[in-house]
Amino acid sequence: MNSLVRVFVSVFAAAFILMGVAAWLNSSEGYSGGNTLTIYNWGDYIDPELLDRFQEETGITVIYQTFDSNEAMLTKIEQGGTSFDVAMPSEYAISKMKEQNLLIPLDHSKLPNLKNIDSRFMNLSFDEGNTYSIPYFWGTVGIVYNPELIQGIDFNSWDDLWDPRLRNNILLADGTREVMGMGLNSLGYSLNDTNEPHLQEALAKLKQLSPNVKAVVGDEIKMMLANEEAAVGLVWSGDASEIMGENEKLDYIVPEEGSNLWFDNMVIPKTATHVEAAHKFINFMLDPEVAAQNTEYVGYSTPNKAALALLPEDISGDTRFYPDAELLKRLEVYNNLGKRMLAHYNELFLQFKMSLD
Predict the structure, then answer these.
(1) H or E segment at 144?
(2) Cβ neighbours, 10 Å, residue 163
(3) CA 85, CA 54: separation in Å to the nearest integer?
(4) Any residues with CB less than 8 A from the CB of 235 and at least 6 apart, and which?
(5) Distance in angstroms (rounded) separating the CA atoms of residues 160 and 167
(6) Rounded mean pLDDT, 130-140
(7) What is the mean pLDDT of residues 253-269?
(8) Using CA atoms, how far apart are residues 309 and 306, in angstroms rounded to an integer?
(9) Which among 13, 59, 71, 189 has most CB atoms closer than 10 A?
(10) Can you tell me the distance from the alpha carbon of 327 to that of 343, in angstroms, rounded to the nearest whole number?
């Protein structure tokens, strides 16, 4: 019996020591305690120097994780395995997160820098009153093109993509809403249209584009366009800015029929365990100097009006990425279509891709 007791005590002591070591390791890496902040963001979507600065100024240890799609982000937060304190979903994902009760309301009294956000980008349909979200970056969907390779086509209209001179010379971003939206906009319909005859009409028109489409691709679209592997690409404006930085021959335009106005936003997920620190971080990112530095690093358009005044004229005055009020009127935010209609959109997009062979 004494030997059994000794064995039990030894095992218990060893387990206790291991637990202590594990706790120390977690603490040393910032995964425990109340002085941490876990951020969930798109890849390469913040200046790392700002994370260091936030840690130095606040003493809060930042744990930074990335996702590559809104769907992946939603799944991770729904599962609840990680306590994300701040996340950066797009506008249609926020609608879904609100429906599923995955967000914590923001305390605006803890966000004094909120006054720096341009009022045009506040109180939008996906989050009226900005109860759950604050704009982080914004932009458009449009066309990157190489004027030297497209024989005088100006792309003022989406219909220019159907020009037979562009055979096998167009790259499309692999996005259901973006490609279907292009098809719908080219017909004068809303990119949130759910009318079945309109959707079928858009699919039929997209299939007519097939001879001109070289490929439907993901992130590699940036490298391929910069390397002139195709003359034209359907892309997000932030990607366009990056591509044009690599190849100065390229230009970007949003066709006159209109397009998507998108927003990525800062939210506090229901998984958050450090809500106070989350508010501090959001307010930090809303500081004009911080937002301006982040904008220059990322290359996307800032909704921070005060930060815009601090940016060089070649950035803040570039109407391709900061369009005038007239164009903004023709842009639409993606609505949450609901699971059934989104699945239908995906099915139509798949039918289009199958037509490419």
Answers:
(1) strand 133-145
(2) 16
(3) 15
(4) 141, 142, 143, 144, 173, 221, 222, 225, 243, 252
(5) 12
(6) 97
(7) 96
(8) 6
(9) 189
(10) 30
* CA pair distance 239, 14, nearest whole angstrom: 53
- Tell me the C-alpha distance between 153 and 31, whole Å: 54
pLDDT at 226 over 50: yes
Spatial distance between the Cα atoms of 70 and 128, rounded to a whole number of angstroms: 20
Q: What is the length of the chain?
A: 357
Q: Report yes or no: 343 and 201 within 8 Å, Cβ to Cβ.
A: no
Q: Say how many C-beta atoms besides its own lie within 10 A of residue 155's C-beta.
A: 22
Which residues make Cβ contacts (< 8 Å) with residue 305, sequence separation at least 6? 116, 117, 118
Tokens 């982000």 correspond to: 73
Residue 181 has pLDDT above 70, yes or no: yes
CA pair distance 64, 215, nearest whole angstrom: 33
The residue type found at 60 is: I
* Mean pLDDT value across residues 270-294: 97
For residue 17, is pLDDT > 50? no
266 pLDDT tier (thresholds 50, 70, 90):
very high
Rounded mean pLDDT of the chain? 90
Question: CA–CA separation, 294 vs 272, rounded Å?
Answer: 24
